[in-house]
Amino acid sequence: MSTLAATARALDAVHSRFGFDLVPEGPDWHPYPTLPVRLGEWAAELTGEGRAPSEVAMSLLSGVTGPVLRPLAVAWVLRAELLAVDAATTAVRRRGRVTDRAALACAVRPADPAELAERLAAMGTPIIDTLHRVTRYGRRNLWGGLGDVLSSHALWAGRHRGDPPVVLRARFAEVQAVLDRVSAEVGAAFPRAEPFPLVGPERETVAQVRGTCCLHYRIPGRTHADGTPRYCGSCPLIDDEDRRVRMRPLVDEATTTARTAHLGSPVAPPR
User: Fold this and answer.
1) CA atoms in the 13 A half-sphere facing the CB of 83
2) What tens digit of pLDDT does each residue of 190-239 get?
């Protein structure tokens, strides 16, 4: 099995956003155990600007968990590895209002759904409990948001590799099985994403419809030129016809990846 450094190098080599650091160097890093306090401060700052508490909760959730869940999901999909993350040895980097990278010090083991679920529950619980306390947004939707982030990154990794739809769907089902275990661990049922097929002239791929809206369309200023909300392609609030238009770049990228797989062609982040 790979060492942690080897996994970090391998993920960074695949895509610059897939990797993680080994040592949190510099003033912008926040150890995971300090995040409950920091989240309270960040939430107060954002709600003080007039942003809705529910949107603040979901934005901070994806912000602080995304940099950890991304390499966790990618190592699982591309390398069949479990990054045995632990809060005590994890940090995230926040520059301004953007949390963009994690630093991990953990064991690397063969992929194990039961252990992955245990670690997701342990890492997610203090974050979700804090966000619920400071924003009063429901734990159920917060857990749903965390699950959506995990499945989105798993699909992104598979699409990047050029996996066909049947493999992407199987991987998506594996993630949902892990989330079943998380639900049992935390004692709460929560909304789940659904796979969404995308068919183009030359290639098919799979994206997802989120089970829980990320609420980013409610961020002040996040509108189109005509003032209408800027929804994500994976948003559960839009219809499938609109969704196919918004997600069309994923089909084009899947086609390009299939044509240039030997070049390691990158694809865009999940929509």
Assistant:
1) 33
2) 999 999 999 987 789 999 999 999 999 988 888 777 778 889 999 999 99
Angle of the 53-79 helix axis to the 139-161 helix axis, nearest 10: 40
- Edge-to-edge strand ranges of the sheet holding 98-104: 29-31, 90-95, 98-104
Task: Please give the Cα distance from 148 to 93 (Å, whole number).
Answer: 22
- Residues in a beta bridge with 82: 109
229-246 CB burial, b ≥16 within 10 A, e <16:
eebbbbbbebeeeebbeb
DSSP 8-state code for residue 114: H
d(CA 132, CA 85): 23
Residue range 30-89, pLDDT digits in tens:
999 999 999 999 999 999 999 999 999 999 999 999 999 999 999 999 999 999 999 999
* Distance of alpha carbon 95 from alpha carbon 105, whole angstroms: 21
Quote the DSSP letter at residue 27.
T
Residue keyed to tokens 């950890």: 68
pTM of the model: 0.91
